Amino acid sequence: MSFDHLPDNAIHFPVVDEVLREFFAERRVHITDIQPTTLGQALVRFGHFIDRDNLVALGPIQFGDVRLTFTEHNKGRNWRRAYFNTECWLMLLDFLADYWEDKYIQNALASFGKLLHWRNDGGRLVRLILKAMVVDLQSVPQFIVFSETQSLESDSWTVQCEILQSKLLGAGPQDEAPFPQAPIPVGSPFDFFWFGTARRWASSE
């Protein structure tokens, strides 16, 4: 939530809290918590999703001498779109078999891609073959430094990463074809569904 007339300036939080509680009490909106946030003036937890969605949809709301704007918590001013436009198969050399699990593999790829699938080949523990979506091939590093941090000091391992195969995403099929207009002459050619053959069978009976 933000106050429109002071979008980039911090306001004394107890004042923000008081104004919001008056606003919600007047509209009988149930809330469970109000906290400060760096993405606006307050982070509000609603008791019901419908109340949140209604206030977001209303846009700026005049309340006394301020205007309140509600935004979903995951769509604040730090929200941006990321394009993963390439799908590729990668080979990680000497990625420790102790960490052959989804969460660890995704952690290793987190800076440049998203894990789609990986092959658990126990006969080749020296290599891990996986499929991932990446921003572009240039973002895939040749070496990945992987660590599992649980304390002040942690072990880390350098893993070689090789691109085996790649495919650019985004290409789709042609636009939908118009439905054939009836009546359709008997014996007309069709490329699919055996529709013409079925009609010829029906006409020969």
Key terms:
Alpha-Beta Plaits, 3-stranded antiparallel sheet, alpha+beta, 5-stranded antiparallel sheet, 205 residues, 2 domains, 10 strands, disordered C terminus
What does this structure look like?
By secondary structure, the chain is α+β, with helices and mostly antiparallel strands. The chain has two domains: 2-69, no CATH class; 86-168, Alpha-Beta Plaits (2-Layer Sandwich). Helices cover 21% and strands 29% of the residues. It is built from four helices and ten strands, in the order E-H-E-E-H-E-E-E-H-E-E-E-E-H. Strands 7-8-6-10-9 form a five-stranded antiparallel sheet, covered by helices on one side. Strand 4 (61-63) and strand 5 form a beta hairpin. The longest helix has 15 residues, at 13-27.
